[in-house]
Amino acid sequence: MSKIAAHLPSSITPFSVISQIARRIRIVPLLILLISTVPAWFLTEAIAPQVVRAYTARVDLAIDRLPEENYETVLRRAEAAARAAAQRSFDQDILVTDVSIIVSVQNFGAIAPVLALDVSRPQWRSRPDAQNWATYFKTARSLLFFDNSSTAANGISSKK
Fold this sequence. Notes:
The protein is of the alpha+beta class. About 45% of the residues lie in helices and about 20% in strands. The protein has helices spanning about 15-45, 70-90, 120-125, 130-135, 140-145, 150-155; strands at about 55-65, 95-105, 110-120, 135. Strands 1-2-3-4 form a four-stranded mixed β-sheet. The longest helix has about 30 residues, at about 15-45.
């Protein structure tokens, strides 16, 4: 009599030694991966730190007209307030790269913007002068009821 035996392919044949080795082979890389992530993160941060997120500081200022004050005096006070706000914005936060300031004036209930100051940190560092970087609004004089014919002839123009 002959015995009939079925042959199983070697890939299906269970070998307890091989399966234990295969399990260890899968666990070792997993442990190495888990343990090495934190040092790898520190290394990448040391080599290439994240980009600094810079932004623009926006400031809205409102000043009131003082009694017996003409438009040019109000404008000079607005420039001084804008200059102080720009310097304060750059001093308070090192991530600020640009400053945008709008100064409005109130006169007998009328409110209008008189100047806008837009300046970057390098520009301000080279020349911290509000008059140099300010844009003046021409219609502010009439909107604030400063209709004086002698000063209207001079006109405040837009500078940049």
